[in-house]
Design brief:
CATH architecture: 3-Layer(aba) Sandwich
Order of helices and strands: EHEHEHEEH
CATH class: Alpha Beta
Shape: globular
Structural class: alpha/beta
Distance between the termini: 25 Å
Strand content: 25-35%
Length: 110
């Protein structure tokens, strides 16, 4: 699942999640996924493109639910991929499953 093609995507885990979410002045889109998840792999290029095309307007991150079980449990992540958008540290949108770039942009209201 780890992004190798986009330097504009960050990786979140149980250790840095709260700080990054609270510190983000921009809308933050987090994809909760896993390395074994085929749909997560399918969504990754869409996320990378979104991150690369919207530098300075949004932040895009990924969190592996197996490596960060604390945040997955805290946010009630029951399936992968789940995409959650945060504004000002608060969840404002959520989508379960693979989705389009257009839907992600709608969720971010960019």
């Amino acid at each position: 699942m780890a992004s190798k093609n986009s330097k504009n995507m960050m990786r979140l885990d149980d250790g840095n999640f709260d700080q990054e979410v609270r510190a983000s002045e921009l809308p933050l889109l987090v994809e909760f996924g896993a390395t074994w998840c085929g749909p997560c792999k399918a969504l990754l290029p869409v996320l990378e493109r979104l991150a690369d095309e919207n530098v300075g307007r949004v932040r895009v991150a990924e969190a592996d639910i197996d490596e960060a079980p604390g945040i997955a449990k805290r946010f009630g992540i029951r399936g992968a991929p789940t995409v959650v958008v945060f504004r000002g540290g608060v969840e404002v949108a959520r989508h379960l499953g693979v989705t389009s770039r257009a839907r992600l942009m709608e969720m971010l209201r960019v």
